[in-house]
Amino acid sequence: MRGARAQPNTGSKEGVNSSKQQKKKKEITIDSFCTGNEQRANEPEGEGSAKEKSEIPANWIQALEELKMQFKIQLREAEDNWEKNLKTKISHLETEALELKQENSVLKAKINQLENEAKEMKNEAKQMKGEVKKMKDEKKEMKDEVKRIKDDLQRKSDQKEKDDQNAKDEIQSLRTKIQLLESSDLTRQQDTIKQNQKNEKIEENMKHLIHKTEDLENHSRRDNLRIIGLPEDHDKRKSLDIILQEIIKENCPDILEQEGKVEIERIHRSSPVLNLQLTTPRNVIAKFKNYQTKEKILQAAKKSRYHGTTVRLMQDLAASTMKKRKAWNMIFRKARELGLQPRINYPAKLTIFLQGKVWSFNKIKEFQEFIKKKPDLNRKFDVQAQNSRESSKGN
């Protein structure tokens, strides 16, 4: 009987492809075998050995091996699926990054093309102005010539009728030329107006494209964090990657406990070459692999300390956006002193809380017009003094 049972279970592939019913029977057989062992522990030695030979199934070892092999196959399949999914996600991210770079290059090419077209149109407009001026000079010369002819006719009124007719014909010809010149001058003025309108439209398109390019650059920096005030002498002792990990550990250890080691794709100083004339250290820009981890660090530790030095963490943005935000600094500080709860929202919009409402301003001029209508607030901000300071800086 034992030889007959062992024969159909000789290969591992047949054990893997067996049905659920056969597995259940094998488990029951193994359980019964284990139960048998417990019972035999309480029996005499001679009787136990005899029952063991009669009750132990011949294929329990093979069934156990088949179960192990099936578990290994399932584990290997799960690992393969995980690796495939990870590679697919990485491929999608690389494709998206490449598409963003291509779109950025296309926009830059369009901007260059529009700039070249604007230059050509400006040159054409300049040339047209020169031609119009030339026409006006010719018109003036013609008028002078007509006046001279009229004077000659007045002095030679006693000349022959033929000479008079010739003079009249000449005058008529000159009048026709003047009319043609005046008509041509009007046409050129109309063309100049159309050209100016076209130039204004091109300038609007350029502003739109520049704004869109700035927005794309800001979105491409969404995973970046800018560290301000980190002394450069630390770079000689440790790498920037290790320094950033220590800053996170010192100021927001909870994030390290949740995330483990924070993964950073790239970290460097804002300028590759050290400028000895600068009194402040170069900013450090870190690109994180996980956007949410970067946001947690930014919210938890905007003002941090590293070995006794105060450093500031902020979102990395395009240079043009940073310049627009910096223009609000004076107003922002004054609004904070007055308890107006100021905030700089993306990309460079100021919001304040006044009289139970939230007011937002896209430009400094809008804010100045707003507080002119509120005399008390206007005196506190001292807009005229601020305008004089800004004008002196501009000069």
From TrEMBL:
Residues 40-55 have a biased composition (Basic and acidic residues). Residues 319-378 form the L1 transposable element dsRBD-like domain. Residues 1-55, 120-170 are annotated as: Disordered. Residues 222-305 form the L1 transposable element RRM domain. GO terms for molecular function: single-stranded RNA binding. Residues 7-20 have a biased composition (Polar residues). It holds the Pfam family Tnp_22_dsRBD. It comes from the Eukaryota. GO terms for biological process: retrotransposition. InterPro entries: L1_C, L1_dsRBD, L1_RRM_dom, Transposase_22. One of its GO terms (cellular component) is ribonucleoprotein complex. This is L1 transposable element RRM domain-containing protein.
